[in-house]
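Lecture notes, part 5. Sequence design as translation. It can be helpful to think of inverse folding as translation between two languages: the language of shapes and the language of residues. The source text, in structure tokens, appears below.
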């Protein structure tokens, strides 16, 4: 799942996702970049609703991806089900000038009274 707008550094974006059956043992891993995801500790498992946050704690302007993995088989044995969140972290303020472009020289106008 690609987030359509970047996350500001130092901020997090909440999410809620449901599964068609109960799952257990949700865990986040970083698969690209250095950002992280956090699970809402108030949500109990097994269950079919997962809540958490995608964190803007990684490098700016770098592709980021975190993977949410759950055990899709409640009880003994494990069957992984995974969802990837792809995003970037962008500073909300201007941080640099681009390369200036120049035209031909022109006379300085005379002051007006």
């Amino acid at each position: 799942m690609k987030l359509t707008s970047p996350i500001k550094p130092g901020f997090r974006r909440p999410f809620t996702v449901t599964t068609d059956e109960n799952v257990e043992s949700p865990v986040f891993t970083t698969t690209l970049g250095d950002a992280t995801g956090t699970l809402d500790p108030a949500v109990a498992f097994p269950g079919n609703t997962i809540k958490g946050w995608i964190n803007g704690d990684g490098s700016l302007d770098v592709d980021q991806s975190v993977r949410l993995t759950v055990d899709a088989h409640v009880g003994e044995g494990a069957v992984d089900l995974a969802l990837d969140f792809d995003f970037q972290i962008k500073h909300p303020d201007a941080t640099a000038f681009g390369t200036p472009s120049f035209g031909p020289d022109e006379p300085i106008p005379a002051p007006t009274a």
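The translated text above is only one of many valid answers, since several sequences can fold into similar shapes. The mean pLDDT is 93.
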